Hints:
Radius of gyration: 22 Å
Number of helices: 15
Largest sheet: 7 strands, mixed
Number of strands: 17
Helix content: 40-55%
Number of domains: 2
Distance between the termini: 33 Å
CATH topology of the largest domain: Aspartate Aminotransferase, domain 2
Oligomer: single chain
CATH superfamily of the largest domain: Type I PLP-dependent aspartate aminotransferase-like (Major domain)
Shape: globular
CATH architecture of the largest domain: 3-Layer(aba) Sandwich
Strand order of the largest sheet: 4-10-9-8-7-5-6
Structural class: alpha/beta
Amino acid sequence: MSTxxxxxxxxxxxxxxxxxxxxxxxxxxLVYLDNAATSQKxxxxxxxxxRYYEExxxxxxxxxxxxxxxxxxxxxGARETMQRFINARSPKEVIWVRGTxxxxxxxxxxxxxSHVGAGDAVVITAMEHHSNIVPWQMLCEEKGAELRVxxxxxxxxxxxxxxxxxxxxxxxxxxxxxxxxxxxxVNPVQRMIALAHERGIPVLLxxxxxxxxxxxxxxxxxxxxxxxxxxxxxxxTGIGVLYGKEALLDGMxxxxxxxxxxxxxxxxxxxxxxxxxxxxxxxxxIADAIGLAVAADYxxxxxxxxxxxxEHELLAYGTELLSGLEGLKIIGTAAEKAxxxxxxxxxxxxxxxxxxxxREGIAIRVGHHCAQPVMDFYGxxxxxxxxxxxxxxxxxxxxxxxxxxxxxxxxx
Length: 412
């Protein structure tokens, strides 16, 4: 760890802002390395949610009284914060959803249903999370379309030539991960988008694993849709964002019907509301939208460039440390990675390893990580996955390595 990074990025002070990181598990200090599944929440996010319920709890957009006006102001202010966080052109391009899974389903069931027909195709990649596979499978089955899968190599890197070869006139949309949850691969998304746009094909990026680690600029990327899950970027569960270019969102039909997504209703006809409300039927998740915006501001104040630099140091340190352990193999060795290390221990099932590590106070993720086709590609049922955030330390990774040695001794 360089002295320069220590001075500008005080991890000890940051950790003190996350209440869960101070707890113990089975009498051992918690070492939390499951951030790709969900991240811990800083006190400011927890306090923001509490303040909403204690001070301004009311429905939005519908009331003339003070509480409703305050709630609406906070809720729509949160949307503007998320607009700035991803650099969307307008708050109209920021749709509140429950998370990436709902965002992908929304696009598949609105844009997809309107533009994909029999004989058409949808392109995804070999490293997808299930939430960016199943909605497109469902659409293709319904429409008689083809689901095409762009290949990857043994390092877990996208085969760009193979991807480009799939981009024929039949393809109506590409959906791909910005960062792989199972491997940590950072995909060459700008090049992928440019290649698709050369053929007039829109691109959706699954940004669930990117937003906690990288600066996201949807205008610079020129993606057509982008998804964010709040609980992975230090915000609440059950809230996220779908970004879409305004012209595309304008042309898409609503997905859910109900209050707030309408301008007027008669028994004969309903006139739909303007963006973004057209896609936000019913009482929204007001408190958690506010909490997510606080999380985004928190990350912005820390500095997304500083976050990326620190996590890169952790990834390099952890990769070298675990690579030096006899009988351990890292799965996913792409040149460009976010802070994820998936690994196998010879002769030991990942579930057994995870159970022993848990008793040492070390939280990792074991299983197929909702990416079974990735496991099938490597011919394995599961991996152990350590995923770091900016509040993790070298000492956390030292504890992981020591824990793995204990696992090996126990099952040796």
